[in-house]
Design goal:
Layout: E1 2-14, E2 26-29, E3 32-37, H1 39-47, E4 61-64, H2 67-76, H3 86-98, E5 113-116, H4 119-129, H5 131-144, H6 154-163, H7 170-175, E6 191-193, E7 196-198, E8 205-211, E9 225-243, H8 244-250, H9 255-271, H10 278-281, E10 289-295, H11 315-334, E11 339-346, H12 363-374
Antiparallel strand pairs: 1-9, 1-10, 2-3, 3-7, 4-5, 6-9, 7-9, 8-9, 10-11
């Protein structure tokens, strides 16, 4: 089954997801500039809530370049404030190279690796089991001065697959993993996440701020610090879907873990809020219009409901109407034979065209009905 989540969420003054010059991200859609929040930002925010919604720490993942340091600290038995010994660092470095991953001068892997919480321990165990071999390889590399990449053997690749095994890691099962150098480590994502876009045209504004030195003598006037912060305010359409069959496959056909991961995914995406500039803007709003669709195949992103940007001041009400009417138009034209469940809720406005029987009175009811439909 495919579970789709459509949300409308209004954020007041905010800069939730910045671009390279510090401005809120944007996109031109339907001929108008819109606010945008990247899918990466939404996924990171959702992942931060997985444990809150029923997943255990060991069932969540890490995205890191610091496997060498992490495994080294386990081997040396030191905490985060103590450096790993040079010998251990060199041995673990050679160990991860033997598995086919290169590291830079700071012992960071070439790219962020999406791994389970236990990967550091598994790598440490692997290095300790092969300590003599790896130590000799370190000495040989130092003597020869060679820096070329190590080509892993089939046995090494098998060790790598075991260390990076993600069959119990919900994050990796949901969002997938791509390792450019070795497709054996790849995991097909079970969840797709769209960039959130504003339903209406948006202009970036600037907050000119001043700050005063608390210890400055009273007779001295003027600000001690000035600057500008970019922000916008917008009502966003958010969309994500989940392929429950792919999720089950990724989690080794563990149906109990799959059910908990799906529940965590649904609740976490509803409550996900990027952390950008929240300390100074506190844009902690919740979605006010929610629609879930459970279908056997395919998926419908409803962003085209806003191809013509919403105008006026009733942004949430008009966006809700546009989204539901667009969904109804698609449903009537393409048919709904493959749809197994529809559930919606609108907290601050009327919810047009949706049968009252398909409306939920709480987020728990919405989640329960959605997940039940996905398991029929």
């Amino acid at each position: 089954m495919i579970v789709e989540l459509h949300l409308l969420q209004s954020f007041p003054t905010s800069n939730l997801n910045r671009d390279d010059v510090g401005q809120p991200k944007s996109v031109t859609f339907g001929g108008a500039l819109r606010g945008r929040i990247s899918s990466q930002s939404m996924k990171r925010s959702a992942r931060d809530s997985f444990q809150r919604y029923g997943l255990k720490e060991r069932e969540t993942g890490l995205r890191t370049k610091r496997l060498v340091e992490g495994a080294g600290k386990i081997i040396d038995g030191v905490d985060d404030v103590v450096d790993v010994s040079e010998k251990t660092q060199a041995t673990v470095r050679e160990g991860i190279r033997k598995l086919g991953f290169e590291v830079d001068q700071k012992d960071l892997t070439e790219y962020l690796l999406f791994v389970g919480q236990g990967a550091r321990q598994e790598l440490a165990d692997y290095c300790q089991r092969n300590w003599d071999t790896l130590s000799k390889a370190v000495a040989d590399r130092k003597k020869s001065g060679k820096t070329e990449k190590v080509k892993p053997t089939q046995a090494d690749l098998a060790e790598g697959r075991r260390i990076l095994n993600a069959e119990r890691v919900a994050d990796v099962a949901l969002f997938g993993r791509m390792v450019a150098d070795n497709k054996d480590f790849n995991v097909d994502a079970a969840s797709q996440v769209a960039h959130a876009i504003s339903t209406h045209a948006v202009a970036t504004e600037f907050d000119f701020y001043t700050a005063v030195d608390d210890l400055k003598p009273e007779e001295e006037a003027g600000a001690d610090m000035i600057g500008t912060v970019d922000f916008n305010a917008a009502c966003y359409y958010r969309y994500a879907n989940l392929d429950t069959e792919q999720l089950t496959k990724n989690l080794g056909y563990d149906t109990e873990l799959t059910a908990r991961a799906a529940r965590a995914w649904l609740h976490s995406f509803i409550t996900a809020r990027p952390s950008g500039k929240q300390n100074s803007m506190a844009a902690h709003t919740m979605p006010e219009t929610l629609l879930t669709v459970v279908r056997e195949h395919g998926s419908w992103n409803l962003a085209n409901a806003f191809l013509n940007p919403v105008r006026g001041t009733e942004l949430m009400a008009d966006s809700t109407r546009a989204m539901f009417e667009h969904f109804d138009t698609l449903r009537r034209f393409y048919g709904d034979e493959e749809i197994r469940g529809v559930t919606g809720a609108a907290l601050s406005c009327e919810m047009p065209v949706l049968d009252p029987a398909d409306q939920a009175a709480s987020v728990e009811e919405l989640a329960e009905r959605t997940l039940t439909a996905a398991t029929r």
